[in-house]
Amino acid sequence: MKVKADLHHRFIEKTAASRQWFERAQKVIPGGVTANIKYFDPYPLVMASGSGARLIDTDGNRYIDYNLCYGALMLGHGHPVIQKAVNEQWDQMGTTVTGTPHYLEVEMAEKLVSLYPGMDQVRFTNSGLEATMFALRLATAWRGRNTIAKCSGHYHGGYDQVLVSVQQGEVDENGFPAVTADSKGLSAYWRENTVVLPFNDWERTEALLIRNHERLGAVILEPVQSGFLPPERDYLLRLREFTTLYGIPLIFDEVKTGFRLGLSGAQGRYGVIPDLTALGKVLGGGFPVGAVGGRQEIMEICSPTEKGDILTLGRSGHGEDVLFHSGTYNGHPSVMAAGMATIRVLEEPGVYERVEQEAFFLRQGMEEILDRHGVPGYTMGDGTIFNLVMPTDKGYRSTNLLQGDKTLRQRLDFALLEEGIYLKPMSRFSLSTAHTHEVVKETLTLFEEGVKKIK
Ligand SMILES: Cc1ncc(COP(=O)(O)O)c(C=O)c1O
């Protein structure tokens, strides 16, 4: 275990139980974590419980949570309406899952179609990863081409096809992003069949699209990079125009932005309608979920009603007649119930305005505190998610967090953990309906103590 004593000194003092759990976990779980994103040096905090905006770790330390399970918990921890909805689903059905179609998935699909302008039909999955993977399969199968275009720095889940140029790094001598592998074990096929676009740089994006449009089966992007780098609306509009002109399905990965930038996600916020949309995170109300919605013409290619697929017994079907999509737990009733309860709360008038106001208040307050203490830093984001960039020299603004002063940011993040603000170091801040004005004011007091420590 790497322990940088200076940086982590108090953290280690306060978190002996987390450390013990981590040491135990490491023996039976690679790296002690079940998802690599949950790891940080010297070891991740092991949480014991959560309520509203707060988490308590196994040492009894209390935190105001700004990670919120990577943005998934839009209503905070343990919201009573979600608990009630899940209990009611169990009471009504007498089981967690029937393994058949059921009313909750129909109601949820109808709800999504009514909220998301880009959705005529919907299928459910168990994660955001599965949703983007299925969206890409639908798009490329419908278009009959395998090459995809994605943006440098955009994350769509942990599988081979999209683990290309997730780390925003090198560009060539003409400023075009490099096509790089982001995982061990990635076949060269994926790099060879991926066109990497520079987000928000239409000139270079257009040049790459013109050069490659004949082989493209899909263009996929996070409308807001990493959830906090907003798009230039013109970039989205031009991308939409180009892909429409050449008949290439445009996929918005709204796993982060769905139900975060309002009820209709980024497509509602920026008024640009994709052919396919991937959702996840908030949609599950704290349970594992994903969904793909889109134009009927594309979605219908996975329907087994006209032509049999490999699992349709007794029908004359050929494996290649249908785009195969299945999953034991797809549309799980408890998940649908939790998601519907979440949406009902979010539909109440003024909810988004309130959370966005608190996010704005927090951002303003943090910037004012940093300025007052002479520590360079600014926030970046839209809606209920933002991040803090600490530039190496004052006045410099970059859209690439990696170009900031990572050491300073890390020192601040550990100081914040010590003060009781939970954030995975270097990660973004997400707010929820549980982050009331009182909670945000308390956060600013703790934030100032953290800033004083790193001055
Ligand atoms: C934009 C985006 N797409 C896809 C995913 C993958 O979702 P999951 O972690 O549920 O598989 C994530 C997860 O953070 C994401 O942020």
Automatic annotation (TrEMBL):
Domain of life: Bacteria
Gene Ontology molecular function terms on file: pyridoxal phosphate binding; transaminase activity
Record carries keyword ATP-binding: no
Pfam family membership, one: Aminotran_3
Keywords for the protein's UniProt record, in alphabetical order: Pyridoxal phosphate
Similarity comment text for this entry: Belongs to the class-III pyridoxal-phosphate-dependent aminotransferase family.
InterPro entries: Aminotrans_3, Aminotrans_3_PPA_site, PyrdxlP-dep_Trfase, PyrdxlP-dep_Trfase_major, PyrdxlP-dep_Trfase_small
Name this polypeptide is given: Glutamate-1-semialdehyde 2,1-aminomutase
Signal sequence segment: none
